[in-house]
């Protein structure tokens, strides 16, 4: 009976992963075909062959190369934010937590906007954003490390109040600096700074950073999925079953910080992806992290690719910041999720 149940669970995992992968592939394919200048389906295969060979020839191949790179980066950013959202919800034991709740994105904003304010090149903006995110992560760990690797009683209680409050305070301090920079920025640079703040993928091509962070984090998390399931039930039960709760919480904090830093460095502070998608996947597929992790990663990637496609086509040739679209989509979806959750509790 136990073996049959395990086989059924594994089959369900494969079905859900396959369905989500097909959905993500369909969204990626659709995003490369549409735009202010569409690519006809008949031209797609020849254009793809040209892109693969590294010598895109013709308008269709050039457009496909640009859109494919942007869509790939959008997928990696969305998957990273969604996966970080799953980890933050597990770390804080709160289904409403998101990757930005600890202020890591605010640190990236200070670095990026500082580089934009002085007219830095793109690589300088990326480096400054990454440095700001990592600096806030380090300060946060030093100030709230007792929450992550404290004594046994703290491990059993899963108390994260100090960690959460410290993150909120650091975020507020960073946003004050951001407001100061926006108030003194010259008009010529203000538009770019605002677009970065709300999240923007225009001009983004092939980026390796979010993919590397995503692959490493997903590999580590898949290996610890069972431990995450036990931790989600109760931290005391996890410790009794031999799970190193403090070590697991440190791992979640570090990986969520790395994923958030990579995503925000690539595309700016795109909201709601790391909040709505993990919550929706948990409601649809359950809380088993063996299913939740791949579903959230694939769903988050597909969601951001779809939002970015709308951002560059709805008012084409003008492009909107993708963060505006994710917020416009995410707010009603999340309110609906809250309504459904309240109705289930009655």
Give a structural overview:
The chain is mainly α. It has one domain: ABC transporter involved in vitamin B12 uptake, BtuC (Orthogonal Bundle). Helix content is 80%, strand content 0%. The protein is built from 15 helices and no strands. The longest helix is centred in the first third of the chain and has 34 residues, at 59-92. 46% of the residues are buried. Mean pLDDT is 83; it is low at 151-158.
Q: Which features would summarize this protein structure in a list?
A:
346 residues; mainly alpha; ABC transporter involved in vitamin B12 uptake, BtuC
Short structural summary:
By secondary structure, this protein is an all-alpha fold. It has helices at 2-33, 41-52, 59-92, 104-117, 122-149, 152-157, 161-184, 187-198, 209-223, 225-233, 235-240, 245-267, 273-285, 289-313, 322-345.
SS field, number of helical segments: 15
Into which percent range does the helicity of residues fall?
A: over 70%
- What can be said about the biggest beta sheet? none
CATH class: Mainly Alpha
Number of beta-strand segments: 0
- CATH-level-2 architecture: Orthogonal Bundle
How does the helix and strand content classify structurally?
Answer: mainly alpha
Average pLDDT level: 83
Please report which band the strand proportion falls in: under 5%, 5-15%, 15-25%, 25-35%, 35-45% or over 45%.
under 5%
The third-level CATH topology is ABC transporter involved in vitamin B12 uptake, BtuC
């Amino acid at each position: 009976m136990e073996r049959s149940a395990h086989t059924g669970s594994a089959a369900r995992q494969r079905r859900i992963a396959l369905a989500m992968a097909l959905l993500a592939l369909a969204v990626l394919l659709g995003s490369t075909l549409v735009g202010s200048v569409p690519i006809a389906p008949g031209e797609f295969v020849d254009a793809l062959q040209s892109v693969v060979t590294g010598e895109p020839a013709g308008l269709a191949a050039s457009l496909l190369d640009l859109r494919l790179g942007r869509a790939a980066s959008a997928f990696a950013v969305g998957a990273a934010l969604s996966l970080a959202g799953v980890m933050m919800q597990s770390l804080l034991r709160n289904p409403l937590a998101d990757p930005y709740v600890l202020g890591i994105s605010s640190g990236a904003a200070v670095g990026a906007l500082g580089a934009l304010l002085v007219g830095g090149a793109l690589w300088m903006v990326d480096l400054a954003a990454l440095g700001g995110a990592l600096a806030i992560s380090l300060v946060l760990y030093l100030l709230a490390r007792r929450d992550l690797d404290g004594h046994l009683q703290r491990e059993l209680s899963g108390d994260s109040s100090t960690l959460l409050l410290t993150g909120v305070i650091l975020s507020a301090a960073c946003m004050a600096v951001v407001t100061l920079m926006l108030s003194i920025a010259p008009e010529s640079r203000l538009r770019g700074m605002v677009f970065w703040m709300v999240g923007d993928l225009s001009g983004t091509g092939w980026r390796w950073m979010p993919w590397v962070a995503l692959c490493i984090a997903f590999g580590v998390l898949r290996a610890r999925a069972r431990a995450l399931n036990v931790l989600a039930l109760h931290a005391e039960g996890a410790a009794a079953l031999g799970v190193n709760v403090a070590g697991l919480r440190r791992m979640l904090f570090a990986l969520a910080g790395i994923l958030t830093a990579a995503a925000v460095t690539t595309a700016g502070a795109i909201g709601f992806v790391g909040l709505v998608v993990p919550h929706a996947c948990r409601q649809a597929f359950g809380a088993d992290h063996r299913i939740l992790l791949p579903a959230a990663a694939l769903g988050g990637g597909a969601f951001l690719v779809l939002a970015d496609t709308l951002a560059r086509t709805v008012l084409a040739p003008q492009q909107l910041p993708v963060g505006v679209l994710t917020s416009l989509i995410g707010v009603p979806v999340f309110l609906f999720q809250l309504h459904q959750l309240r109705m289930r509790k009655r």
